[in-house]
Specification:
Elements lengths: L1 H6 L8 E4 L15 H14 L3 E5 L5 H12 L6 E7 L11 H8 L4 E7 L2 H8 L3 H17 L3 E7 L1 H7 L1 H13 L4 E6 L6 H14 L3 E6 L6 H10 L4 E4 L13 H11 L13 H11 L17 E2 L2 H9 L17 E2 L7 H10 L11 H13 L8 H11 L8 E10 L8 E10 L2 E9 L2 H13 L10 E10 L8 E9 L4 E8 L2 H23 L1
Parallel strand pairs: 1-2, 1-8, 2-3, 3-4, 4-5, 5-6, 6-7, 7-8, 9-10
Antiparallel strand pairs: 11-12, 12-13, 14-15, 15-16
Helix pairs in contact: 2-3, 2-12, 6-8, 7-8, 9-10, 10-11, 13-14, 16-18, 17-18
C-alpha cells in the first residue's frame, strides 16, 4: 500500500459497509437463498451493524419480490435496505421505464442502480450514443431523488472505462452527482485492476467528485480486498462486498476479511466495530444457510486462521502468542488451535491437551509416551489434525483414564446381490457387552458403513439414548501407499455432530470396513465421554 499512502489523504470519515450477499453473492455458482433465508441473513447483518443491505433486483424473480415485501414490514435497527437495478433504457423517459417503476415499487429507502462508464459498453452493448448514456444516468438518479430515495450509483466497469477514456468515465460520475446521487460507487467489475491503479484512479476521482465515493471490487485477480482497502486509503467511504466473499466467478470483496482489516489494521471507524467479536459466528451462519462448507483457510474467521502445527511455532506461541499471530483470535470471534502431527513437539501435546480440557504439564511423565505413540501412528497413516476426538481418546487411554462404555464381542457385514443391475442388500450385525449385558443387533443400510453404523447405534441406544442426536456429516476415504494397490492401507475420516458440537475421528486399516469401524467407535465414545463430563 506504499503507493496508496503517497497518493492519498489520511482517512477522516467513517467507512460504511454495504453488503450485497443477497444479490451479488447469490450469483456465485452453487449458492442460492430462499426468501426466508434472505430475511434471516438480513436480520443478522443488521444486528452485526452493517450499514446497507442490498436485497436483490426487484422484478427479476419472485423470490426477490417476496424479500422486499417482508423487508418493508421489518423493523431493522440500523441497516438500510437497498433495491438494485439499472438506469432507464435508451430513449425512454425514466417515469415510463418498467424496470424503474419496479425499483420504485420495492419501497426501499435506498435505490442502487448501475450504469455504463466504458464507451465500448455504451456503443457495443447498449447500442446507443455516449450522450444518451450520460442522460440515462442523470435522468434515473433525478427520478429517484424526486421520490425521496437515497441513491447510490454503481459505475459498472469504471476502472476499465477510466483506463480507456478517463474524461468520459468521469463525465458519467458527474452526471450522477449533479442529478443528486448520494454516493457514486466505482466498480472493478472484471476484477482485473491492481491496487496501485485503484489508488491512482480513486485519488483522481476524489479531485473531480464532491459526493461520497464507494468501491465495489471483484476477486478475479485475488485482489478484491486489497483493492477495496487501497480505495479507502484514497478517500472512498463505502465498501461493497459479500460475507465470505461469495460472488460470480471467483467472488467479491470478502467482508469477513476487509472489515477486520479496516478496524484492526487501518484504525477506521465502522458501525459494526462493537460487534467484531461476532464476525466468525456471522460467517458460519451465512455458510450454513447457503449449505456451503466453511472455507477453513479464510483469513480471520477460518478454522485454521490461528492454527499452529510446527513444534517450534507452537513453543513460541505458548510463550508469546503474538510471535506467530497477527491479532488476538478472540477479537474476531475465533480461537487458537494446536494441530497434532508428526511435526509435533511437547508444546503441541501440552497445548492441545489444554485445548481439549486435559490437564498436562511438561513434567507429566506420559508426555514422552504420548509423543512417541503419536509419531508412530502418523507414520502408520493416521492423521489427527482434523480428528481431535480420536486424539482426545488416545490421550485418555495413554494416561489410563479411559473407561470404555462397551466391549465389542463381534461384528459382521454381508452384502447380497443377485444378477446385474439388481438391488443389493447390505446387512450388518453387531454384538456388544454393555454394563454386563450382551446385546446383538442386526440392521440393513445403503452401504456397509451405513448398515454397520445403524447396527452399532441400535445396540447402544437402550443404554445411551443420547447417541440418537449424533449424525455423520462427512465421510472421507484416502488410500495410503497406493502403489500396493488393493493391499494398500485405507484411512477413514469421519465428521460427526450432535447439533451443538462438531468433532472428527480417524481410523486406519488395510480393510476399509475395519478402518470405518474404528472411526465410528471413536465418534460415539467421544459423544458419550463429552456428555458424561457435562453432568
Amino acid at each position: 500500500m506504499a503507493v496508496a499512502r503517497t497518493l492519498c489523504a489520511v482517512m477522516t470519515k467513517p467507512v460504511a459497509i454495504y453488503d450485497t450477499t443477497l444479490r451479488d453473492g447469490s450469483q456465485a455458482e452453487g449458492i442460492s437463498f430462499s426468501s426466508a433465508d434472505k430475511v434471516r441473513i438480513a436480520e443478522r447483518l443488521d444486528s452485526f451493524g452493517v450499514d446497507y443491505i442490498e436485497g436483490g433486483w426487484p422484478g427479476s424473480n419472485p423470490k426477490d419480490m417476496e424479500f422486499f415485501d417482508a423487508a418493508v414490514k421489518h423493523n431493522f435497527k440500523h441497516a438500510r435496505v437497498a433495491a438494485f437495478g439499472s438506469t432507464r433504457r435508451a430513449n425512454v423517459r425514466a417515469e415510463d421505464d418498467q424496470q424503474i417503476k419496479t425499483l420504485l415499487a420495492a419501497n426501499t429507502p435506498v435505490v442502487t442502480m448501475f450504469g455504463k462508464t466504458w464507451p465500448m459498453h455504451v456503443t457495443e452493448v447498449l447500442r446507443t450514443t455516449l450522450e444518451e448514456n450520460v442522460a440515462m444516468v442523470a435522468d434515473s438518479v433525478r427520478f429517484f431523488k424526486q421520490h425521496g430515495k437515497e441513491v447510490i450509483y454503481d459505475a459498472e466497469h469504471f476502472f476499465d472505462g477510466y483506463k480507456a477514456d478517463a474524461r468520459y468515465a468521469l463525465a458519467t460520475l458527474k452526471a450522477a452527482q449533479d442529478a443528486g446521487a448520494d454516493t457514486v460507487t466505482l466498480c472493478d467489475t472484471n476484477g482485473g485492476t491492481l491496487p496501485s491503479e485503484v489508488a491512482r484512479i480513486v485519488a483522481d476521482v476524489r479531485k473531480n467528485i464532491t459526493c461520497a465515493v464507494g468501491i465495489h471490487t471483484h476477486n478475479d485477480s485475488g485482489l478484491a480486498v486489497a483493492n477495496a482497502l487501497a480505495a479507502v486509503e484514497c478517500g472512498a467511504t463505502q465498501i461493497q462486498g459479500t460475507i465470505n466473499g461469495y460472488g460470480e466467478r471467483t467472488g467479491n470483496c470478502n467482508l469477513t476479511t476487509v472489515i477486520p482489516c479496516l478496524l484492526l489494521k487501518m484504525g477506521a471507524e465502522c458501525a459494526c466495530k462493537s460487534n467484531l467479536s461476532h464476525l466468525r459466528e456471522l460467517s458460519v451462519f451465512v455458510d450454513d444457510l447457503a449449505n456451503a462448507r466453511p472455507d477453513i483457510r479464510q483469513p480471520f474467521v477460518g478454522a485454521t486462521a490461528f492454527a499452529h502445527k510446527g513444534g517450534m511455532h507452537v513453543n513460541a506461541v505458548e510463550k508469546i502468542a503474538h510471535s506467530y499471530e497477527h491479532i488476538r483470535p478472540e477479537l474476531v470471534g475465533n480461537h487458537r488451535r494446536v494441530l497434532i502431527s508428526e511435526l509435533s513437539g511437547r508444546s503441541n501435546i501440552m497445548m492441545k491437551a489444554h485445548e481439549l480440557g486435559i490437564d498436562l504439564t511438561k513434567d507429566t511423565p506420559e508426555i514422552r509416551e504420548i509423543l512417541q505413540q503419536l509419531k508412530q501412528l502418523e507414520h502408520a497413516g493416521y492423521e489427527f489434525e482434523a480428528a481431535d476426538a480420536s486424539f482426545h481418546i488416545l490421550i485418555q487411554k495413554l494416561l489410563k483414564r479411559h473407561t470404555p462404555f462397551f466391549n465389542l464381542l463381534a461384528y459382521r457385514v454381508i452384502m447380497d446381490r443377485h444378477g446385474v443391475g439388481d438391488h443389493s442388500v447390505v446387512e450388518a450385525s453387531v454384538k456388544l457387552e454393555v454394563n454386563g449385558e450382551v446385546v446383538h443387533t442386526v440392521s440393513e443400510g445403503d452401504g456397509p458403513v451405513h448398515a454397520l453404523d445403524r447396527a452399532f447405534r441400535g445396540a447402544l441406544q437402550k443404554f445411551y439414548p443420547n447417541i440418537a442426536a449424533v449424525r455423520l456429516v462427512d465421510y472421507k476415504v484416502r488410500i495410503i501407499d497406493s502403489q500396493l494397490a488393493t493391499a494398500a492401507k485405507t484411512r477413514v475420516m469421519i465428521e460427526s455432530t450432535d447439533g451443538t458440537d462438531i468433532w472428527g475421528t480417524v481410523g486406519v486399516h488395510d480393510n476399509i470396513i475395519e478402518a470405518s469401524w474404528e472411526a465410528l467407535v471413536d465418534s460415539v465414545e467421544y459423544k458419550l465421554f463429552k456428555d458424561e463430563q457435562r453432568k
